[in-house]
Amino acid sequence: MTNVIARHDGVVTHGISFPARPDGRRSTTEVGREVVADALRAVDPAGALGVEQETAWRSGYVVHFRRLVEAGLTTPEAWVQIARDGLDAVHRRMVVADDGDGGAGRDTAAADRPLGWLLDAAPTRVLHTEEVRGDGAAITELVVPYRGRDLRGDALRDQLADWVVRGVMEPSAAEAVADVAAHPEWLRAEGHTVVVLGAGAEMGPLAPLLRWGATVAAVDLPREAVWERVRATATRAAGRLLVPVDDAGATGADLLAEVPEVATWAEGLDGRLVLGNYLYADGATHVRVTVAADVLGARLLRTRPDTALAFLATPTDVFAVPRAAVVASTDAYVERGRIAKVVGRPLRWVSRGRLLHRAYPPAADPGIGDSLVPVQGPSYALAKRIQRWRATTALADGGLVSFHVAPSTRTRSVLKNRALAAAFAGAHRFGVEVFEPATANTLMAALLVRDLARPPTPRAHPWQDEAAAAVHGGLWRAAYEPRSALGLAAVLGYGSARG
Q1: Burial class of 343 by CB neighbour count within 10 A (0 to 12, 13 to 18, 19+)
Q2: Is the pTM of this model over 0.90?
């Protein structure tokens, strides 16, 4: 395959893509709806039927993604079944697209290969390893940058306690980070090679891991600016950076079209592999790169069965949340200030209950923390759900999985969306803290190395595995259901976001 790019119905079609219809168009909506329906079918037939009858998927998808969580709460087996069926539906539908131009009279669908073809496909170019060793001194204690300060020791413990009191993170997250601070030898992730997919991503762990002296294998697109930044980060740090280069000296790989190349390269790396998915792309491409990472993981697990998987979940999704979070949210709603109560009543009346309503029924156990943001779209929701499904099935199959909810963060990819940027700027008025990238990626890297040092034991129900050590920024414990406050947060934050 080459990297010639063709478009059908707005979807780039080189490498992994959505299946082509007879007219050559590739529909993201059809695939998303079919995957969610198939995921629900065995456990919740009525829910599957509701998905199939949804006529406004791009706006109505939020109800059905919530249903995926609610249906799985009945039993642990139901939760895992939904995950397995969802992944199977994805792998049956997604394809390896032909790179042609899709011109008139050309059977595009016939030219596509099934996704499973990639599991055994041979690479078309060989990637070698360039090693970059930094000349910096390894940081041998956990230091978290936060609002212009470097938090360590007592200052870090005090900040963790403050985040817990304000409901910014779950107590289990503070305990896990404190555990890393007490065991600085974990920071190097000794014996592991962390394969960072999306090495240039602001939320990825590449920079903190290299500062701590770990070994990181970086994968990103062959873009000079990205690799200049990644190499510069490694040069200043103390870790060991492994970079894929070909015979011509070109750096990087396009995972959409080069799963076999990246898999063959990674299989030859030393240490226990940790495959971390930190990839992001706009729209439908996010689903495609997520599927590419999933196929890569499947290949690596066949040849390197002890490979660990790592994911960061978005807090703007639907999660089952602990009873303690429900109680904290209910208390915050009951105890909200007089002005909030006075203003809230007419807003709820005018909006017919859509604005500023409580997040959970007071007796919920667990609660359903619904923080889906419709503006992010169904492709974003599906991409993140695929990652959750893989984490669930891998853990159920006895694998080592590091999965944590990460906080909303002021990354470039998020702030370019004006509505989200404004909502982030006003979020603090509703008890939600939005993090800077350096703080967020350090905290999440700390949780990763802890999981590698002390692999988590599966809990009674998989929803509890997802909720463990969550750093949700306050969305789970805020007084209001997040979507009912999002618009007001955006209005209140518009001025500062614009500035």
Answers
A1: middle
A2: yes
